Amino acid sequence: MAWRHKNRWLRRWLTVITFWFVPVLIIAVNEVRVEMAYNKADLQKSLSSWEMTDAQREAGAVARCHGTPDEARAAGCPEDVLAATEIKHQEAQNEYAHRKATLADYLWHAFVGYWIVPAATLLVLGMLIGGIRRALRRPQRTPAASPASPPTEVKTTSHP
């Protein structure tokens, strides 16, 4: 029944890397959740801040310029304040997109470093150990009889 335990190490390897994936995934999801919450809060803070001069503040633009640009436009925010702040808002959205890309890149490297590399290392190690065990399990071959010496013949006498 040699087939019964065939590739046992491969099944064990699959079990180990499957269970190893769970903590890696938990850590990655938690990291994404925390980092994206911070990035979204920072984006909202940047989008809700308005750059105004002293003259614009005295003219009462502070009361009308708040929230998103659409809300400010509906509240009667002057166009010069909207135009000046639009550049800052675009920079904040570009920074948010850059942070998301950086986070995705970080997570890919973490996935490779904490799951792919250990899984590949265990696979190679298991294959190496399996190969060594198989080589040690096979019987040693004895050298064949040399053809230079002919076999001796045995004479037998027959009885009538």
TrEMBL record:
Keyword tags: Membrane, Transmembrane, Transmembrane helix
Chain intervals for the UniProt region annotation (Disordered): 138-160
Spans traversing the lipid bilayer: 12-29, 106-132
Claim: Membrane is one of the keywords in the record: yes
Protein's name in the database: Membrane protein
Organism in which the protein naturally occurs: Caballeronia cordobensis (Burkholderia cordobensis)
